[in-house]
């Protein structure tokens, strides 16, 4: 083997066509029979291979409690890829991939299974030339992390060697409060250094989230108004039109605030409000996000500025649906919320005095994620009052999903003889200008893990800061004796959330 | 919808585009560029297909310019909106004297502010840089492989290179180059010599050899195989070859000294993919410029004859003409 590092003569910084291809490595997925694995991970691996971004020596190892041989597992992967991959199925890509597919059956606590796993990986290092580079994807409940991490350590799979890497990938939830997040971090970091732990928040892999940084920092147009001189409030919404589905066991007792606000919404908040980083290096980006998260504070009057609800039964989108409390395996006295809205304030020069309203819920009118900056009204309107009756406020809306893009709302004259001003939309549809089907978030994130490129992954400091914001609110809700307010399915949430904004003189935007 | 206009003018075409867009509910607002495609009737069908597909990835106003001779000057147009593509497609047929002044027709039809790209799927004007339509565009795409004498075509491109030019035979190489660069990432050994193997008359192979020669500063030899297209690249190191071989145009095997041989998908890409890749970048490609220009002065080395380094222009030319003769002989 060659150990002297010298610059690769074929790489030229001006040569921007050449993509970065990950080095040879083994991706080990724990919990490979789960939904996430078949619907997202395996298709993403195939799509990466199809785009020529996986190295020739790539291996995929599944670990699960199934009595499968390698080829049974390959068949599962084959089906998952055919059904869910974004790019067309091509036999030659499959042949490249299938050469490196292995399966190790066994329980997570079983010594022998892990010896088997260690052997399989060593074999692959030989047969596929993967050179001792391993990524472990823990697609399993966080309760099992301790066992897996201990097993990895005791079988020497987490050891650091020069010129090789071992990385661990974990999915949300990163704990259920500040304390458990710290505990989780202690477990993981006892074996893997912070730089080898990749926390996947698939939202951050979305093109439109990355576009937020382009919008803010590549343009001169928006930055001057991106502050409390012009913005009077911000609404961040993530709505789902479905109920909890089969996730009763996971969801009840956790609630939507832990599930969504702690990670997705607070990350979106941080990206919307952070100062410009010196560069897009992971450490610089992290510093700015941490600064703004540390400046964010929960409301002092929790009774006035937080709202929660649970969907009732009824009709939503032409379907008859059950209420949350009637769902299978949900106790009728459950106090878990399926809708949460909170107000946050950010104590810094840029944002002091601007309320940030975060809301999320299940069984709302439609599936949508967006960030809306509402602007102050013009200080003087040289029109008569009736002229501007229909004029609302200017807004910039960053639409994250599904119809990705940016909307600008402003007033325009209605054609005709009278001066009458009405709100209009100016729309940029991401899909309209760049229809090149954009990569799935998981493709981007898995590739970044294999390349060891961390900017899109939150580190434990960010996770802990988010919990510090959310914990007081969760504690307050836990102290309330009553159940969350019911709201009609297919609506935009409970009345208490509307009241919460009305107190400040605002109303929720209909996304 | 498809609207046919015969005996028309640019202004009428513009008005029709606006009307059609309004009545279809503004489907084409986010168009990012104007793509001009210049072809003759025989290339028309293929160009139309590729442009539709490219338009799906990059919504654009596509102006398909079909020129023909004749004594009577005429201008006919066909406006396609909302037909399998998110942008707009206008087929413009020019005959007679109008065909000699195509820019006068096209200039009013360019989208404001956004980039203009021109693509010749087949024949390229002799003096490309001074062509009327070429001067409207900031990016110019040609395809040497479509020419009967690809290497000559590439050299002509190199001779009147203008920033913003690319040839699709260069675009075809991206996956190969990515793989070769990745191979050297993993196995950073000193390369002593390079062999590029392809079927006869493959301009991509010429470019690849030229690129490797430029970057690695070693001799790059061309060898002829049965094809299809590029079939192998071998880079010699002290402990053996780094080799990528693709005999079937589909699946390649990848070998690095001291490591097991592995398979890697390396499919020959169709024109649609190539155009989409090109439309992703609007800046000029300096790496392509250096690569194609060095075809002009290092002919002997890249030509496959194990000749000593021919840096001087004079010998370059000689090699050039001897190659022409060899080629003619082959034809016979």
List the helices and strands and how they pair.
The complex is a heterodimer of chains A (511) and B (332).
Chain A: E1 25-30, H1 35-50, E2 58-64, H2 70-84, H3 91-98, E3 101-105, H4 111-127, E4 134-138, H5 145-154, E5 166-171, H6 178-189, E6 197-200, H7 207-217, E7 231-239, H8 248-251, H9 255-273, H10 282-295, E8 296-297, H11 302-305, E9 306-311, E10 314-316, E11 319-321, E12 339-346, E13 356-361, E14 368-375, E15 395-401, E16 405-413, E17 421-429, H12 430-433, H13 441-451, H14 460-479, E18 485-487, H15 495-502
Parallel strand pairs in A: 1-2, 1-4, 2-3, 4-5, 5-6, 7-13, 9-18
Antiparallel strand pairs in A: 7-14, 8-12, 9-12, 10-11, 12-13, 14-15, 15-16, 16-17
Helix pairs in contact in A: 1-2, 1-13, 6-14, 9-10, 9-14, 10-14
Chain B: E1 2-5, H1 10-23, E2 33-39, H2 41-57, E3 60-68, E4 74-81, E5 88-95, H3 102-106, E6 116-119, E7 139-142, H4 150-159, E8 165-167, H5 168-171, H6 174-186, E9 193-198, H7 203-216, E10 220-224, E11 230-237, E12 240-245, E13 251-255, E14 262-265, H8 271-280, H9 286-297, H10 299-302, H11 313-331
Parallel strand pairs in B: 2-3, 2-6, 3-5, 6-7, 7-8, 9-10
Antiparallel strand pairs in B: 1-4, 4-5, 9-11, 11-12, 12-13, 13-14
Helix pairs in contact in B: 2-8, 4-9, 7-9
Name some characteristics of this structure.
heterodimer; A: Rossmann fold; Dihydrodipicolinate Reductase, domain 2; 2 domains; ten-stranded mixed beta sheet; 18 strands; 34% helix; globular; B: 332 residues; alpha/beta; Glutaredoxin; six-stranded mixed beta sheet; 11 helices; disordered C terminus
Average of per-residue pLDDT values of chain B: 83
Q: Can you write the helix and strand succession of chain B as a string?
A: EHEHEEEHEEHEHHEHEEEEEHHHH
The termini of chain B sit apart by 51 Å
> Major beta sheet of chain A, specifics?
10 strands, mixed
CA radius of gyration of chain A: 25 Å
Low-confidence parts of chain A, pLDDT < 50 over ≥5 residues? Answer: none
């Amino acid at each position: 083997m060659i150990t002297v590092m010298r610059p690769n003569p074929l790489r030229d910084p001006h040569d921007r066509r050449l993509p970065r291809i990950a080095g040879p490595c083994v991706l080990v997925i724990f919990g490979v029979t789960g939904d996430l694995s078949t619907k997202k991970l395996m298709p993403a691996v195939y799509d990466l291979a199809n785009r020529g971004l996986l190295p020739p020596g790539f291996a995929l190892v599944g670990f699960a409690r199934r009595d499968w041989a390698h080829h049974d597992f390959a068949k599962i992967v084959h089906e998952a890829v055919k059904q869910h991959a974004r790019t067309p199925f091509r036999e030659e890509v499959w042949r490249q991939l299938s050469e490196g597919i292995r399966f190790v059956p066994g329980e997570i606590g079983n010594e022998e299974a892990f010896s088997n796993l260690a052997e399989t990986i060593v074999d692959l290092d030989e047969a596929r030339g993967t050179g001792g580079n391993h990524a472990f994807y823990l697609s399993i409940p966080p309760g099992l992390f301790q066992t897996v991490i201990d097993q990895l350590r005791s079988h020497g799979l987490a050891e650091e060697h020069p010129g090789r890497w071992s990385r661990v990938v974990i999915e949300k939830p990163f704990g259920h409060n500040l304390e458990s997040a710290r505990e989780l971090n202690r477990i993981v970091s006892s074996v893997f250094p912070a730089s080898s732990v990749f926390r996947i928040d698939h939202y951050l892999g979305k093109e439109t989230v990355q576009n937020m940084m382009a919008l803010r920092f590549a343009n001169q147009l928006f930055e001057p108004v991106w502050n409390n001189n012009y913005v009077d409030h911000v609404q961040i919404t993530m709505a789902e039109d479905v109920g909890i589905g089969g996730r009763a066991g996971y969801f009840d007792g956790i609630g939507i605030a832990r599930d969504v606000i702690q990670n997705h919404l607070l990350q979106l908040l941080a990206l919307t409000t952070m100062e410009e980083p010196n560069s897009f290096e992971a450490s610089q980006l992290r510093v700015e996000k941490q600064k703004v998260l540390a400046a964010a504070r929960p409301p002092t009057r929790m009774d006035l500025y937080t709202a929660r609800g649970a969907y009732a039964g009824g009709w939503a989108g032409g379907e008859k649906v059950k209420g949350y409390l009637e769902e299978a395996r949900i106790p009728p006295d459950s106090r878990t919320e399926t809708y949460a809205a909170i107000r946050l304030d950010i104590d810094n020069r840029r944002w002091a005095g601007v309320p940030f309203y975060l809301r999320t819920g299940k069984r709302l009118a439609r599936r949508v994620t967006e960030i809306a900056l509402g602007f102050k009204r013009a200080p003087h309107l040289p029109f008569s009052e009736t002229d501007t009756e229909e004029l609302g406020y200017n807004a910039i809306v960053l639409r994250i999903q599904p119809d990705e893009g940016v909307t600008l709302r402003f007033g325009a004259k209605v054609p005709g003889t009278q001066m009458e001003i009405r709100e209009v939309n100016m729309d940029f549809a991401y899909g309209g200008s760049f229809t090149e089907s954009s990569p799935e978030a998981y493709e981007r994130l898995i590739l970044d893990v294999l390349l060891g490129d961390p900017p899109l992954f939150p580190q434990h400091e960010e996770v802990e800061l988010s919990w510090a914001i959310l914990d007081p609110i969760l504690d307050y809700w836990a102290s309330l004796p009553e159940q969350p307010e019911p709201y009609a399915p297919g609506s935009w949430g409970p009345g208490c959330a509307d009241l919460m904004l009305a107190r400040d003189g605002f109303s929720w935007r209909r996304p | 919808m498809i609207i046919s206009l015969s005996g028309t003018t640019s202004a009428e075409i513009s008005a029709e585009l606006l009307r059609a867009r309004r009545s279809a509910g503004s489907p084409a607002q986010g168009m990012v560029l104007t793509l001009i495609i210049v072809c003759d009737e025989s290339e028309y069908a293929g160009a139309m297909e590729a442009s539709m597909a490219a338009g799906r990835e990059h919504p654009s106003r596509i102006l398909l310019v079909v020129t023909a001779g004749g004594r009577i000057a005429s201008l006919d147009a066909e406006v396609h909106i909302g037909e399998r593509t998110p942008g707009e497609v206008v087929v413009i047929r020019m005959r007679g004297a109008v065909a000699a002044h195509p820019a006068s027709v096209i200039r009013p039809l360019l989208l404001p502010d956004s980039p203009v790209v021109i693509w010749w799927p087949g024949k390229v004007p002799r003096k490309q840089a001074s062509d009327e339509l070429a001067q409207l565009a900031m990016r110019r795409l040609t395809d040497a492989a479509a020419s009967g004498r690809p290497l000559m075509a590439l050299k002509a491109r190199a001779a009147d290179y203008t920033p913003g030019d690319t040839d699709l035979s260069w675009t075809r190489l991206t996956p190969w180059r990515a793989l070769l660069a990745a191979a050297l990432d993993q196995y950073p050994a000193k390369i002593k010599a390079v062999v590029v193997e392809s079927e006869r008359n493959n301009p991509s192979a010429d470019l690849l050899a030229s690129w490797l020669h430029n970057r690695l500063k070693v001799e790059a030899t061309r060898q002829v195989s049965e094809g299809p297209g590029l079939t192998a690249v071998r880079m010699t190191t002290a402990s053996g070859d780094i080799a990528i071989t693709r005999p079937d145009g589909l699946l390649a095997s990848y070998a690095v000294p001291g490591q097991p041989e592995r398979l890697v998908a390396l499919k020959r890409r169709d024109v649609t993919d190539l155009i989409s890749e090109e439309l992703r970048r609007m800046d000029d490609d300096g790496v392509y410029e250096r690569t194609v220009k060095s075809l002009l002065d290092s002919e002997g080395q890249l030509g496959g004859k194990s000749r000593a380094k021919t840096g001087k222009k004079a010998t370059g030319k000689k090699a050039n003409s001897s190659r022409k003769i060899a080629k003619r002989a082959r034809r016979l």
